[in-house]
Amino acid sequence: MTADDAPPVPVVRQLRLVVEAADYDAAVRFFRDALGLPEQAAYAGEGDARVVILDAGRATLEIANPAQKAMIDEVEVGRQVAPRLRLAFEVDDGRSATRRLVDAGATEVAPPTVTPWQSLNSRLDAPAGLHITLFQELRDPDERADLDGFGTEGDRAG
């Protein structure tokens, strides 16, 4: 097959993470009401089937190799704690958001910590069995691009 014969690259419109929560009401209160993710839609069906779709703003997919995952855990927590999947939410005020979510039922795994990549990150265990990072960017992308170790995979090509 030649490049001309290849199917077109799909256009992804949305990243949606679907999480099963045994305590659905607690998870909704935490993520919608405490974290402040606006409700986009909700559906109910037979047998008390319920789902809510919360708008988490812009989505990205962060892919890290095992060494990077281990390094992030070490920097943010001081030990290996994160499961294979971890949610990260960018917030405007990392310290107050962490306090609010702990008050709403999260367990603080690590307090807000300034990272080498110039963000303020905290780690929490949240309802629905999710391990989350709250992060507050301390520098804009242009400032961070000039720091050692920053760039894109595309910067390495060639």
| Morphology | globular
Distance between the termini: 25 Å
Strand and helix order: HEEHEHEEEHH
The largest pleated sheet is described as:
4 strands, mixed
Q: What's the CATH topology name?
A: 2,3-Dihydroxybiphenyl 1,2-Dioxygenase, domain 1
Poorly predicted runs: none
CATH class: Alpha Beta
Instruction: Quote the average pLDDT.
Output: 90
Provide the β-strand percentage band: 25-35%
Count of spatially separate domains: 1
Total strand segments: 6
In terms of structural class, how would the helical and strand content be classed? alpha+beta
CATH architecture: Roll
**What Rg, in angstroms, do the CA atoms define?**
18 Å
Helix content: 25-40%
Query: Can you identify the CATH superfamily?
Result: 2,3-Dihydroxybiphenyl 1,2-Dioxygenase, domain 1
* Strands ordered across the widest β-sheet: 3-6-5-4
The number of helical elements comes to 5
Describe it.
The protein is an alpha+beta fold and 158 residues long. The chain has one domain: 2,3-Dihydroxybiphenyl 1,2-Dioxygenase, domain 1 (Roll). Helix content is 26%, strand content 26%. A 4-stranded mixed sheet has the order 3-6-5-4, covered by helices on one side. The protein is globular. The two termini are 25 Å apart. InterPro entries: Glyas_Bleomycin-R_OHBP_Dase, Glyoxalase_6, VOC_core. Pfam families: Glyoxalase_6. Residues 13-137 form the VOC domain.
